[in-house]
Design a protein that fits this description.
Layout lengths: L6 H21 L5 H22 L10 H10 L27
């Protein structure tokens, strides 16, 4: 009998993959900031969802990093200072920031 899937661990693993993709694309000369921003947003989104899931809390199907940050705070999760402006990664009107860092 296999162990039950651990949503938090699975989301964190996916977040690490997106972060690695963002780093690799950021080093590529011929890649604009849009795909870098996309993968950076995805990494943060999945990491926040992993943190929420680790508390056995539900989270909505959303890409809104600001909302997920608020849900983390509501679950008494302290966010790292580096994430205080992560809500800037949320796409507005389908666009992503060029290089928010």
């Amino acid at each position: 009998m296999s162990a039950a899937p651990d949503l938090s661990s699975d989301l964190l693993a996916l977040a690490r993959e997106d972060f690695a993709a963002a780093e690799a694309l950021d080093r590529a000369d011929r890649v604009s900031g849009a795909p870098v921003g996309f993968h950076a947003q995805q990494a943060v989104e999945k990491a926040l969802k992993a943190a929420i899931a680790s508390r056995n809390e539900d989270f909505p199907f959303t890409h809104d990093v600001g909302l997920l940050m608020q849900l983390c705070q509501d679950a008494s999760l302290e966010l790292p200072v580096d994430l205080f402006e992560a809500d800037r990664l949320t796409p507005l009107c389908g666009g992503y920031p060029l290089r928010p860092w």
